[in-house]
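Let's practice the habit of predicting before peeking. Look at the sequence and jot down your guess about where helices and strands might fall. Then scroll down.
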Amino acid sequence: MKIETEINDGDRRLLAEAIDGFVPAKVIDIHAHVVEPTGYAPTTLGTHLDGRTISPAHYFEAMELILPGGRLKDALFFPFPAREHDRAVINAWMYAENAKVTGSFRARGLAIAGPRDDPRAFAEAMADGRCVGLKPYHLYAGKGDTSQSALEEFTPEWMWRLCDQHGAILMIHLVRNEAVSDPGNLEALRRLSEKYPRCQVVLAHIARAFNHRTARGLRALADLPNIWVDTSAIAESEAIRTAIEVLGPGRVIFGTDYPISHVRGRCVTTGNQFQWIYPEDGKPTRMTLVGIESLLALRAACTDTGLKPAEVEKIFEGNAKAILAKFR
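Done guessing? Here is the structure:
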């Protein structure tokens, strides 16, 4: 995979199709990554990231490729997860880089957190505004294959309690084959969201509905007002449409998953699974960027559900502003 720094004529045509008359003048990105490579163990980052520093400043420059015209105003950053790295060092670097962002941009951060980390450091960072929540990840659950981990193995109750105390965000990338349709995930999400109602739960990638059929599980969570989803890297309109229909446009938030947004490829549903395809795999080579595919899918979903411009603006800006309102 390669992180693109330029787009071609084919990309431009698709981008115009995605954004002209649709994407509003102000956009907030709820899901973007930063990378400080010296904090990671060798070979733990993908080859597209290895040795590359990605700061908020790099991000705001790069996003003009897919959100031109100065639309992007704010972003929520968190470091790329990896199995072996110094989370405290990487979080501290992100806080410092966010503080350097000036001018018309606003940069906020989520701290990456493992189940056995000390909650006190995160509590201090939330209290003084350095971070607005936590980003756990299944790789921190333990050794070996963690892709079938139970939710609380990598998102233990202390994270929910802490985010509840601060009205903060808990950004969750669900695992298990059925993602948000998995009975165990649904039971834990309902129980903990009800117990900690001030914890703002953002289920990344439309609750990891890369297989759009799994998004149907959102129906079991629709009555929980503190559960949101983001659109990051989802290129199938069916998943986004399900989220809009089930949760309403007031609980769907735009995200890019940068720098994945700037890689050529797409994730597609196949049977009861999903498959990422890239030009490097020998698949069709005339691919556009993941971020453009995601914008096209979002536009199709909003059109299919008959959203009005004010409702589209909520997805691109208003909902993120609401969830971040406590943190100035």
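How did you do? Residues 9-22+112-250+260-323 form a domain with the TIM Barrel fold (CATH 3.20.20).
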